[in-house]
Amino acid sequence: MGRKYRDEMRPRHGMLRSREFIMKDLYTFDYSNQHALSTYEEVRAAYSRLFDELKLPYLVAEASSGDIGGDLSHEYHLPIPAGEDNVISCNTCEYVANEELAVSRLNDSCQSDAVSQDRGPVENDRQTARVWRGVSKDRSTLINVWYPSSSHAPNGQEASELSDADLNTHAIKSILPELDSSLSDSIPFWRTTPQSQESGRPKQIVNVIDHRLGKSFSGTLNANKSQFPLVPRQSDLDLSAISCQYIDSLSDGSPVDIIRIRDGDACPRCSSGSLRVQKAVELGHTFHLGTRYSVPLNAHVQIPAALAGDNVDASSDKKLVAVPIQMGCHGIGVSRIISAVANHLADKTGLNWPRAIAPFEVVVVPGKGFEEDAAAVAKSIAETCPGLNSTSTQPIDIALDDRPESLPWRMKDADLVGYPVTIILGRKWESERLCEVQCRRLSTNSYIPLGDLPVYIDQLLSQL
After folding, report:
1. 3-class secondary structure, 72
2. How do residues 257-307 score in pLDDT, each as one tens digit?
3. Which among 372, 378, 368, 371 has a CA at the least distance from the CA of 409?
4. DSSP category for residue 259
5. How far apart are CA 26 and CA 43, in angstroms?
6. Under 8 Å between Cβ of 75 and 285
7. Which residues have C-beta within 8 Å of that of residue 349, sequence separation ≥ 6?
8. Contact (Cβ atoms closer than 8 angstroms) between residue 42 and residue 77
9. Which string of DSSP letters, residue by residue, matches 415-458?
10. Out of 3, 14, 66, 274, which residue is the most buried by the measure of CB atoms under 10 Å away?
11. Whole-angstrom Cα distance, residue 5 to residue 8?
12. How many Å apart are CA 337 and CA 80, to the nearest integer?
C-alpha cells in the first residue's frame, strides 16, 4: 500500500482522476507457468471476495494488457455514469470484456448487407460511405477508415446514422498498431512528411474497410476516386508514386468490424444473449506477465531439476537448474474505490456508504434532553455482540453525535456523511422507549425497542 503520483494533464471527476492516489500493489513470483497461473487465479479470487464485501454490482472484465504486457489480464469495474471505460457484458452468459477486447457476433442482417453490396457498387455511393483519416506515429502512413453512413440497429430497430464518434479506435489499432489516434487533423502531418525518410518508411496510404460496405468497396474506391478521394485536395500530390493498400479482412480471414459495440448487439459467446454497454470506472487490475521482464533482466531462480519438467534437458545430470521467474502484477486503487462508490451510491440527500468502508456503521442522534440516554444506547449497542443467528459476531461500529446543534441539523448532517444506519432518540423514545432506526439505502424507517436493536441493526447492515 502506498501513495502514487501522476502528472495528469487534466485532473477531473474529483478523486477519480487526481494527481495523487493510494494504490495497493501486489507482485507475485513463481518458478513455472503452471504455478504462476494458479497464483493468478488465487489473486483473482481474493480480489473478488474483497469487492463482494462492497455488495455492489462490480464487473470483472477480460482486458488488454496494454504497455505492461503479458497475455492475460482482468479489470474490476464499477458501473458509474462518470466512468471513462466502456465495459461490455452479456445478459445471458458470463461474457464481460473491456471495449479494447470486446467483440460482437455478426448477425444475419449484417452479413446479408455485405453480400448484397458484394454484387456491385451501391447506387449513390457518396451517401453510403464515410471516411475517418488518421496517421501513423512516424507520419509516413495515411490511414483511411471507410465505414457506412448508417447501420442496422439490433433487435429489428430502424437503421441509425453513424459518425466518427461510432468508430472503435481500439479495433483500428488492433489492425494497425502504429496508428496515432491523438490527432484531430492528421492530414497536414502526413502531407508535410517527405516522400522518403532516412530512417523511416516511404509515404503510403492504407485503406481499412468495414465489412458493412462489402468486399467490393475496395474496387469502388479505385473506380470512383472523384467521389471517394483517398487524400483530400489531392491535386497537388502524385498518387502514382504513393503505395496504396486495402484491408477488408483480418489476417485470419474474419471480417473487419470497426464500429463500436452498441446495446443489443449479439453476444459472441452464446447464441441467445445480447450485449450491454456500460460506462464504468476501473477499481483494480490483475496481470499475468510471464517472463516478459524476467528474461530481458536475466532474472532466474534455481530449482531442483526434477521440478523444471520440460524446461530442462532430459540428459542433464545437474541437481539444480536456473529458470526464468514467472511474474504477476496486481493492483487495487484504494482512493478510486472511495470516489467510485461515492459516485455510485450518493443521492440528492448525501453520501451512502456500504458497511465495509463506512466511517462508522451506525450513528446515534439524540433529541434535546436525551444526550445521556443516547450515550447509554450507543454504549449498549457497541458492547453487545449480535446473537447466534446473526451474520456477524463482531461488535457494531457506532458513533454518537453529541454536538450542540439542533436535531434536524444533525439528522441532515448524518445523511450528508452517509452513515449506513441512523438511530434517532426523539418523541417515541420519550413516550415508549422506542428508537427510530433509519436506513436510507434500504428505504426503511422503523421503531425498535432497545433490547432488539443489536440484532435488527445487524440484519440491516448485512444487506449493505
Report:
1. strand
2. 999 999 999 999 999 999 999 999 999 999 999 999 999 999 999 998 888
3. 368
4. B
5. 9
6. yes
7. 415, 416, 440
8. no
9. HHHT-SEEEEESHHHHHH-EEEEEETTTTEEEEEEGGGHHHHHH
10. 274
11. 9
12. 12
DSSP3 helix / strand / coil % (the chain, rounded to 5): 30, 30, 40
Q: How many helices (H) and strands (E) does the chain have?
A: 12, 22
212 and 113 in contact (C-beta within 8 Å)? Answer: yes
Residue whose C-alpha is closest to residue 167's, from 131, 193, 115: 131
DSSP letter, residue 342: H
From 305, 297, 274, select the one nearest 154 (Cα to Cα). 274
C-beta separation of 344 from 279 below 8 A:
no
Count the neighbouring beta carbons within 10 Å of the beta carbon of residue 451: 11
The four Cα atoms 328, 329, 334, 336 give a dihedral, to 10 degrees, of: -120
Phi and psi (nearest 5°) for 222? -65, -35
> Pairing mode, if any, of strands 362-366 and 421-425?
parallel
- Name the grid cell of 192: 508535410
The proportion of the chain whose per-residue pLDDT surpasses 90, expressed as a percent, equals 59
Per DSSP, the three-state class of 411 is helix
Per-residue pLDDT band for 214 (boundaries 50, 70, 90) equals confident
- Are 237 and 84 in contact by the 8 Å Cβ rule? The answer is no
DSSP 108-137: HHHHHHHHHHHTSPPSSHHHHEEEEEEEET
d(CA 403, CA 409): 10
- Across 177-187, average pLDDT: 86
181 contact partners, CB below 8 Å, separation of at least 6: 134, 169, 172, 173
How large is the greatest C-alpha to C-alpha distance in the chain, in angstroms? 95
Q: Has residue 316 got a pLDDT over 70?
A: no
Backbone angles phi, psi at 42, to 5 degrees: -65, -40
DSSP E strand boundaries for 159-266 = 160-161, 179-180, 204-209, 243-247
**Grid cell locating 194:** 517527405
Instruction: Taking residues 433-452, report their average pLDDT.
Output: 95
With vertex at residue 16, the alpha carbon angle to CA 3 and CA 43, rounded to the nearest 5 degrees, is: 60
246, three cell numbers: 486495402
Model confidence, pTM: 0.81
Rounded distance, CA 177 to CA 257, Å?
A: 16
Q: Which residue has the cell 455514469?
A: 81
Query: What does the block give as the cell for 448?
Result: 425498535
